[in-house]
Amino acid sequence: MITEIGFGTWLRSRRRLLDLTQQALADQASCARITVRRIESGALKPSRELTLILLEKLAIPEVERLQWTLFARGLSGLPTRTDASFADNPLTNLPVFLTTFIGREKEQAEIIELISKYRLVTLTGSGGVGKTRLAVKVGEQLLADYENGVWLAELASLNNPELLPQTVAGLFGLAAQSNIPSTVMLVNFLRTKTLLLVLDNCEHLLNSCALLADSLLKNCPKLKIIATSREALGIMGEVTYRVPSLQLMDSQQALEKIREYESIRLFEERSQLVQPDFKLTLENVASVAQICNRLDGIPLAIELAAGRVNIFLPEQIAIQLNECFRILTGGSRTALPRQQTIRASMDWSWNLLNDSERILLQRLSVFAGGWTLDAAELVCNGDGMETNQVSEVMIQLADKSLVLVNQGSGNARRYYLLETIRQYAHEKLIETSAHENIRIQHLRYFLALSEQAGPALKGPAQMEWLARLLVERDNIRSALEWASETNVEAGLALPSNLGVRFWESFDLQEGVHWLTEVLHKPGSQAYPGARAKALYLQGFILVRLQQLDQARSAAEECLELYRACQDQRGEIDGLLVLSYTIFISGNLMQSIEHAQQALALAQSLGDTWREAMLLFHLSRYDPDLTRAFPYSEQAISLFRQLKDWSSLAFCLGRAGEIVLLQGHIQLAEKYITESLSLFRQLNFKAGSMDGLTIYGQIAFSRGDFEQARASMQESIAISQEIGNRNNYLWSRARLGYIIFHQGDMSEARAIFSETAQDFKNDHIEIGVLYTLEGLASLSVLAGNPDKATRLIGWADTTRKKLGDIRPPIEQNAVDKDSAACRISLGEVAFSNAYVAGRAMTLEQAVAYALEEN
After folding, report:
1. pTM of the model
2. How far lies 619's CA from each of 35, 371, 669, 691, in Å?
3. CA gap 471, 416 in Å, rounded
4. Which CATH superfamily is domain 7-87 in?
5. Per CATH, is 359-394+405-606 categorized as 1.25.40.10?
6. In what order do the strands lie in the sheet with 223-229?
7. CATH of domain 105-242
8. Residues 632-646: tens digit of each pLDDT
């Protein structure tokens, strides 16, 4: 029997599809979040006015809104979804090209037919033949067919095959938060998605692309892939499609027929970009046809040739192309492969540049993923190119369509080269004596940028700087590659300057990769200060990745080096990372001792930021809540003063957690509401996830089980999205507790049983006892007081060992369960069962809890 879907269920699904929280949708619709929550739960039917606003915000076409309004008011069933209702707000990152797409109707139809039948279609062909633009055009036409979107992974600037999985994961906002491999995290995310992935420019990463595509397709049944490559990936199930050159014409055909040919239309339209009054005539059509034929209909080559019509007549271009090809091929036109053809056209364009243009184009090829004017002036100057020349010559290159421009982060314009041109120019750079010096200047620029970023990431401009750094990630990678080969000191300093916040937002695993690589180089011992700073960051990241033994080793060496250098601020950092590592390892008293020592040193030096950070950590470490809360309050005050909004948000979250444990529900809600608001403004998903978990506990404590359930489910969704398994399990366990109190015993038992086993497998003892307390409550209701008492005995003993405190509402529940068991069993039997439970190991307790009552 098919259950009729309600408007609330549809609203929740549509909101999540568009990546909107309840609060975000409520803000857009100018209503309260509780209104959205009540509509989604089915408790409230929206007014006509509110319905129309919601439908507009959820991208339902205006012509369809009457039908949807009737559905929302309960007067009709779910409307049939049209392609337009999706196309108005698709999920995609496909670029919007500034020039028109010419022809290829036949190829588009053939590829669409292939992808409807097969799950992997690889577009092959020579460089410049138009594989990327054809794939993007096909993707645009298929947007309505893929519920979770069409996504383009541009791989041209990626040089390290090992970084492929995290590069693709980055399309979906997935950053490493644990020791889960990026491929596994990506599979988990895409497993249930109906999605088309375009892997563009695979030829230089062929093996890695083949392995990733194979893994994704085997594990994600609704996923399809279009790849572009100069050769096939070579895996089972792949179908290849050779992309032909553009349609060519016979130069003797009539003028009125010429615009039917794609190559001719492309030449004309691109020519008009540089000479608006250019048009095809009886006088020039033969030369245009000759040019297109000479270039084998390769789009990039045609565009390069068309870009010269403001300098030469089509007849002159055709003559120069003929001469160029004779020189390059010894007069054998028939033996010329297409790759040589485009190379010849680029050689020809290169020869039209003046000396300054050639010098700058070579040097600009050092940038990966684009550059700003400031970067170009500082990296490309010297030895034949003055700083004040750079902008002028770059304009000349832009006029020739060799340098492209778009709007970067903030107000900065960003420039880039087409990858084929960049590779060609880089080959020219390598042939010169300036190559090494330009690489050195590129490294110096991004090292200096990282030095500026370090303090900025701790202050009010942190989000602007973080956005700027993420745009430069390919350049940072390139600089790190050069540093690892030639400059160990810079290799230590560059990733360290960027700090934990950058690598959390980018990729923790990649951060630890660069740090580990350079720290293992023998030469790193010669720079104790830089090495200590790198070890500090490595220690923090390794703790995040649950590699605690390696983290402690890094932290201890970090502290030892800073003390040997007599660097007191560094000593604070060493003590901080060591205390954090020890705390996560379970030794509370030792972690507190190190943190207090570091706090005293920070206060003596007047280092406000480090003082605030240590107060925050002490609020987490100290099990005595009467001490922990003042620590958090002091940290909040200092971070407000410093305007370090992300650190402030974390401190507010910790303060809310503490007062919740003390039973102050309203005060806890005040702290967590502000914390969540900051995290959302910062677009910091990991922080929002933690805040939602605590907010769910607050709602549970005040008896609002529906809000508690919604918050936990939102936290679970974010933890799945960013790959944070630890939070996923905790939120699932707490969701089980909420469902238990809502009266659904079978679902609660299933959740508790599943998470108890998962916590045990992941060696998270505190999580195990939380779920087993839930199973104890279920055992009371099932009439098995002996089992409940044993589980309570084990949980009490484990909490005492770990120094963990139950929130008041949970302690009250355990006390009620204990009292019920004592009455049912009698004092002697209760005491015996309780003692027996205390003696169980973790494995025994889990196995016993999962037995049927």
Report:
1. 0.66
2. 36, 43, 18, 16
3. 12
4. lambda repressor-like DNA-binding domains (1.10.260.40)
5. yes
6. 150-154, 195-200, 223-229, 120-124, 238-242
7. 3.40.50.300
8. 999 999 999 999 998
